[in-house]
Amino acid sequence: MNIPVIKHSDSFSTTSQICREDLIDIAAAGYKSVICNRPDNEDGGRHVSSSELAVACASAGLAFSYLPAHATHIDKEHGEALRALLAEMPGPTLAFCRTGNRSTNIFRMANIIAAPGDSFRAEQSNDKPQQFEVVIVGGGSAGIAVASSLLRRAPNIQIAVIEPCSHHYYQPAWTLVGAGAFRHDKAVRPMASLMPEGVHWIRNAVSAFLPDHNRLQLDDGQLIGYQQLIVCTGLRLAWEKIEGLKEALGKNGVTSNYRHDLAPYTWQLVSQLKRGTALFSQPAMPIKCAGAPQKAMYLSCDHWLRKGRSKQIEVEFNSAGTTLFGVAAFVPSLMRYVEKYGARLAFESNLVKVDGERKLAWFEVTDANGNLSRERKSFDMLHAVPPQVPPDAVRNSPLANAEGWCEVDPASLRHVRYRNVFALGDICSTANAKTVAAIRKQAVVVADNLLAACDGLPLSARYDGYGACPLTVERGKVILAEFGYGGKLLPTFRLDPTVARRSHWFLKTIVLPWVYWKLMLKGREWLTKSSEPAQKP
């Protein structure tokens, strides 16, 4: 069957919203009865009604009963009613609601109220995991945003968010912190203050995804069951892939804005450096915020230029890639700043080793003929960016593609093999830029499509690959790069997007943080519609 089924006993199973077309498969799977636990008027009655299903079940040779229950009000009367139905209806029976969680809870209630020796009690549920309608793995930007968006559409939906961290960070500000343009303490808040009301927060981490069984395993061995799964674990910063880097960070001039606690050290180095060599690195894609490594360079160079130190400081940008920026339209404008600051560009130059005490860095360099060599460079300041990879729990799961990312359709964001799994954020296999701006639009697409899937409706919401990279080319000016799949420009404003503007600096430093905390994480979806239906890249 194409619908996710959880078997609770030999005679009783639950699933999410079914449609008429599912009944043939349900009968073929051996079920004899269907119970509808979803009220007809829920969510405006967009789903197939109980009366329509009763007629369709009769045609398919299935018995049918209607036992409606609201998600927030399940009591012993529901359990008693289910016991009575199962006593008279032929088995095995399949019960459903929006996502199956209410049906599961009614079955549990029936077991709770069953007296010792009651024949029903012998059919106790064999589903040991905690069960939830929707489980969201990850409480970062993507997890909180999509939870809030779901609750705005379906206030009674039961959601669990699995997130071990106690604090939540506004990561786009870290580049500004590293330039002395944003307060470090303004970029972090307690996770508890952001978790949407009504969400069940599981403070743990997922060690294994078991999508064939609609379950997750946590680090402590606990199992969690779900009807719908949203994967937004983010990616992992693989510091260990650069020899000596982990040990060197935070001292001897080695820093990175990709760690919140090191961004203030970046500003310390920039503000104190009077002369010498400053190296900036960028690993192979994909990475989160592809412009961040060079933004660190621009803001540092701008400070040195303003202080009259630029001629005493040699700047080199080492990139594992072959071009300055992935969207060609923005390269000429960026090159003008590279030339203004007198920075040297070293392409196909990948940082592989750091010796902080000796202030040496090694790069693997590919020449025009494809030959690989290793070059040693000395530095007074090194801003290093680590390679970035999928978390092991996703990489080693059936959800992963060949590269380890959660494999979803690039338009609907639903998994290509598991119909009750969606993903958004940095863990996605989609070809968009991994930015908060992308998440802001993806959260809306996932919320709309997940609920449509529960209702048996087509997935009409489409993600166009939108991402935004506010390129802070100098203090007070930003090039607002907005683009979608295939590098298509998707500017929000009717201005030349390749021009650095003071208004965009105000947007970056004042407006967007406010939008993040007050709108995006609260499910208030400002400017989130995709420009047009997306095409697979």
TrEMBL record:
Keyword hit for Kinase: no
Keywords for this protein: FAD, Flavoprotein, Oxidoreductase, Quinone, Transit peptide
Domain FAD/NAD(P)-binding: 133-252
Gene3D superfamilies: FAD/NAD(P)-binding domain (3.50.50.60), Protein tyrosine phosphatase superfamily (3.90.190.10)
Pfam families assigned: BLH_phosphatase (PF04273), Pyr_redox_2 (PF07992)
Cofactor: FAD
Domain Beta-lactamase hydrolase-like protein phosphatase-like: residue ranges: 10-110
InterPro entries: BLH_phosphatase-like, FAD/NAD-bd_sf, FAD/NAD-binding_dom, Prot-tyrosine_phosphatase-like, Sulphide_quinone_reductase
A GO term, aspect molecular function: quinone binding
GO biological process: sulfide oxidation, using sulfide:quinone oxidoreductase
SUPFAM superfamilies reported in the protein's UniProt record: FAD/NAD(P)-binding domain
PANTHER family per UniProt: SULFIDE:QUINONE OXIDOREDUCTASE, SULFIDE:QUINONE OXIDOREDUCTASE, MITOCHONDRIAL
Protein's recorded name: Pyridine nucleotide-disulfide oxidoreductase family protein
Species this protein is from: Collimonas arenae
Taxonomic lineage of the native organism: Bacteria, Pseudomonadati, Pseudomonadota, Betaproteobacteria, Burkholderiales
